[in-house]
């Protein structure tokens, strides 16, 4: 914050979720950065290179799923400040191959605030083209966010 004070309220929750994302061991394999723009909207910045290719020389579907799921998940979890959400279902549509270079995953909350939340996500390549989209269903777990390594509102 500009005044040197740590963020509070929703901003503190958003920054803590970003920290939680950065602390996840899986992101050592998928180097990326989460940005929670506002309640219900998350963006993940990453880059694609040949290390993510399958044997036929194109980006493996794992990358599509991971980034779409994460963007939708964090968009939904931005509305829930006490418990970690769990993905219960995710549908995706791969519309074109990802090219090497920068990609942005955008996630938006669609519906639900109590036990089940729904969020959409899309992948946008460096030329502004959509390469994939998906919709996820997320459920509140019994895992308090405050107990997870990396989730800290004091940053």
Structure notes:
By secondary structure, this protein is of the alpha+beta class. The chain has a single domain (9-144), classed as Roll (Thiol Ester Dehydrase, Chain A), CATH 3.10.129. Helix content is 21%, strand content 41%. The chain has 2 helices and 6 strands. The protein has a 6-stranded antiparallel beta sheet. A hairpin with a 2-residue loop joins strand 1 (32-38) and strand 2 (41-48). The protein is globular, with a radius of gyration of 16 Å. The N and C termini lie close together (10 Å).
Task: List the SSEs and their pairings.
Elements: H1 9-23, E1 32-38, E2 41-48, H2 61-77, E3 83-94, E4 101-111, E5 116-125, E6 130-144
Antiparallel strand pairs: 1-2, 2-4, 3-6, 4-5, 5-6
Structure characteristics:
single chain; 155 residues; alpha+beta; Thiol Ester Dehydrase, Chain A; 2 helices; 6 strands; 41% strand; globular
In short:
With 155 residues, this protein is an alpha+beta fold. The protein is built from two helices and six strands, in the order αββαββββ.
What class, by secondary structure content? alpha+beta
Tell me the fraction of residues in β-strands, as a range.
35-45%
CATH topology name? Thiol Ester Dehydrase, Chain A
Q: Could you state the CATH homologous superfamily? A: Hotdog Thioesterase
Number of helices: 2
Radius of gyration: 16 Å
| Poorly predicted residue ranges | none
- How is the biggest beta sheet arranged? 6 strands, antiparallel
User: Strand order across the biggest sheet?
Assistant: 1-2-4-5-6-3
Tell me, what's the shape? globular
Give the total of domains. 1
Order of helices and strands: HEEHEEEE
CATH class: Alpha Beta
Mean pLDDT: 93
Number of strands: 6
Kindly state the percentage of residues in helix: 10-25%
Span between termini: 10 Å
The appropriate CATH architecture is Roll
Oligomer: single chain
């Amino acid at each position: 914050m500009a005044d040197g004070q740590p963020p509070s309220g929703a901003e503190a929750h958003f920054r803590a979720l970003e920290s939680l994302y950065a602390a996840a061991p899986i992101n050592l394999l998928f180097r990326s950065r989460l940005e929670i723009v506002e309640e219900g909207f998350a963006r993940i910045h990453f880059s694609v290179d040949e290390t993510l290719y399958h044997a036929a020389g194109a980006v493996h579907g794992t990358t599509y799923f991971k980034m779409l799921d994460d963007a939708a998940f964090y968009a939904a979890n931005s509305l829930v400040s006490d418990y970690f959400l769990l993905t219960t279902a995710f549908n995706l549509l791969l519309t074109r191959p990802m090219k090497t270079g920068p990609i942005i995953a955008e996630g938006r909350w669609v519906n639900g605030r109590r036990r089940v939340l729904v969020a959409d996500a899309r992948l946008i390549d460096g030329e502004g083209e959509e390469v994939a989209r998906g919709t996820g269903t997320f459920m509140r777990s019994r895992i308090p966010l405050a107990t997870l390594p990396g989730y800290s509102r004091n940053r």
